[in-house]
Amino acid sequence: MDDDDKISLLPEHVKHRILSFIPSIKEVVRTSSLSKSWLRTWRSFQVTDFDQSLILPDSAIHQFVGARRWNEYSESFVRFVDDALMRSCDGMPRFQVLATAEMAPHVDKWVGMALDYHVEELSINICKVENFPGNLLYSIPKRVLSAEFIKSLTLSGDVKFDGISTVSLPSLRSLGLSHSHIDNQMFQRLLGCCPFLEDLTVGSCSLLSEIEVSNLSFLSRVMVMASCWPELQVVRIEAPALESFRCYSPYLLKQDIGLIVRLSPSLRCLEFRDLFKMDDWFCQFLSKFPMLESLSLGRCRLLKRITISNPLLKNLSITNCDNLVDIRIDTPKLSSFDYEALSTLPSIWTENPPYNCAVGLYFRSPRIQAPSACFQELQKFLTEWSTTFGCFELTVHLYEWDEGMMGEINKKLDLSTPGIQHLKLVFDASQLSYPLILDSILSNCRPTTILLRVTKPLLKFICEALANREENPECCPGKVQCWKHELKGAKIERVQGTQHHGPLDWQIMLSLLPTLSTWTEVCFRLQW
Q1: Residue 425 β-bridge partners
Q2: Partner of 360 for a Cys bridge, out of 244, 278, 338, 366, CB 3.0 to 4.6 A?
């Protein structure tokens, strides 16, 4: 043994703890080839997550499923799981398996062993084998739904619930159902036997047309994803302790889900994706939650004019709600507001502006809109936003789709607004626009820090421009002077991915540029 190999001398339980922090089980397996000591450690290490990637090369994971090559690898996978479970003599707090329905006898055996060990966290994911004749489903063992010691249960994929008459899960705290074949009656029976459930996730269960939740006094988190076969019709939740509710329609379904959330005055986190609801419904729904602290809206394309009036709201995110034209906000405690747009930018109004709100803007102009109109709209939006919020921090992401767009910077585009002290910019630009980028950034505000994530050529230009600036520039002969006359000093405070701590001088920064990855984040500190 190498004298420098101190880790191999550690006790087994300490090495097990080290291995538990390695995210990939494949990497854990490779440690067994380091030495005989590590081989013994691997043999005694408890594996709890099993799927075909453990015995397949990465390049073959998708190929074997589509080509029905499961049998080619099944024996190795079965031996691997059998061996790992036989070594779990000290119990098994967690067991996760991903297999196919063809492996049903083996999955039954493995789940039975996990239950014998009084597993507390159980996850069964049965993946579909493409091009396989028929629709083979895996039947959940009856023991699973009567295991009084299970605290977390996740059932995903091609699983069904046949012949289960008894359900008893008094210790269950978390339940997840995704793409499972469960009908309304079985779903209600399952929820009725989980009196202490705290976390519920239901996603794309093809037989489930109604999600009705009641009499769960401890339920605090719910996530619902609309299914396709058939379309989800009703979501009705009555949970007095509910703190977080997320509703997604990942398949862009255009149906009006009957959504009712009652008796939840303590709701603090609300998130909608692809919600097919109009303005009046949304505003009325939102007004029911006075304790709301976080609101996220994504692709809610029927919303046009909305009012957000929640006195405790701290975080607001609106993403690709393309038809929004007017947002009225009364949120005095708002500290973070992110807005991402693919096309138009709405008007924003407030009579009770928040104090020191950090704002993030992510804007991609569509090809159908002229660059001049795009940037005029962006300028108006930034100015309006700054006036509305008096924001302390601003992040702007610009996505360039054609050369003509960044050419508009040559005119009157200001990428900053008055009062900003911390400015973060993420964008690309053509090389012809480089001389005007700094003017666009610093034309209105005098930030103390600027965080840039731009291409390396642009970053190099900015570094050289700041490093070689003149103390008394003669660029402004008139009374109105640009930012160059007010800037007293500039330092590079931080460079992402480097070991340098503290301010860097310009020569070191320029020498680091060739080694940096694309879109490296660099922080500048400015003195005015």
Answers
A1: 396, 452
A2: 338
Query: What angle do helix axes 456-467 and 434-442 make, rounded to 10 degrees?
Result: 70
Tens of pLDDT along 79-108? 878 877 777 666 678 888 888 888 889 999
Residue length of the chain: 528
B/e letters for 291-322, b = 16+ CB within 10 Å, e = fewer, are: ebbbbbbbbbeebeebebbbeebbbbbbbbbe
**Confidence bin at 370 (pLDDT 50/70/90):** very low
How far is CA 337 from each of CA 171, 326, 348, rounded to the nearest angstrom? 39, 15, 12
Burial label for 259, CB within 10 Å (0-12, 13-18, 19+), is: buried
Q: Report whether 308 contacts 286 (CB < 8 A).
A: yes
- H helices of 390-455, in order, are 403-407, 434-442
At 209 the three-state DSSP class reads coil
Give 504's DSSP letter.
Answer: B
Question: Does 280 have pLDDT greater than 90?
Answer: yes
Mean pLDDT of the chain: 77
Pick 6-44's CATH classification: 1.10.1200, 1.20.1050, 1.20.120, 1.20.1280: 1.20.1280
Q: How far is CA 342 from the centre of its chain?
A: 19
Distance (Å, rounded) from C-alpha 97 to C-alpha 296?
33
Q: How far is CA 443 from each of CA 234, 400, 524, rounded to the nearest angstrom?
A: 52, 21, 17
Q: What are the tens digits of pLDDT across the range 403-418?
A: 444 444 444 455 566 6
Residue 241 and residue 265 in contact, taking contact as beta carbons nearer than 8 Å: no
Contacts (Cβ under 8 Å, ≥6 apart) of 312: 290, 291, 292, 293, 333
Q: Are 307 and 324 in contact (CB under 8 A)?
A: no
- Check: CB of residue 122 under 8 Å from CB of residue 152: yes
According to the model, what pLDDT value does residue 401 have? 41
Question: ∠ CA(486), CA(488), CA(490), 5° rounding?
Answer: 120
Question: Domain residue spans in the chain?
Answer: 6-44, 358-527
Average pLDDT over residues 367-376: 52
pLDDT of residue 477: 64
pLDDT digits (tens, 9 = 90+) for 199-254: 999 988 888 888 899 889 999 999 998 755 556 788 889 999 999 999 887 654 55
Q: Are 253 and 276 in contact (CB under 8 A)?
A: yes
Write out pLDDT tens, residues 30-61.
Answer: 777 777 777 777 666 666 777 766 555 554 44
Using pLDDT thresholds of 50, 70 and 90, give the confidence band for residue 2: low
Cβ atoms of 158 and 128 within 8 Å: the answer is yes
Region class of 335: left (phi > 0), else alpha (psi between -120 and 50), else beta: alpha
